[in-house]
Amino acid sequence: MPEIMTTKELAKYLKLHEITICKYAAEGKIPAIRIGRVWRFDKEAIDRWISGGQTQQDQKKDKD
Q: 0.85 exceeded by the pTM?
């Protein structure tokens, strides 16, 4: 079962400000899911994103 993180949890995990996390999510720079007015993050996807050093947009470009 995937571990889903809140903005606050992810900010602490990445040592970034919550506003930065929301900005990156809105810009597609970090893997995220928007549910209503809040962002949620799959920890496994975040770990892959960190390891790969790519954004979702970069990954989409690679597929095209």
A: no
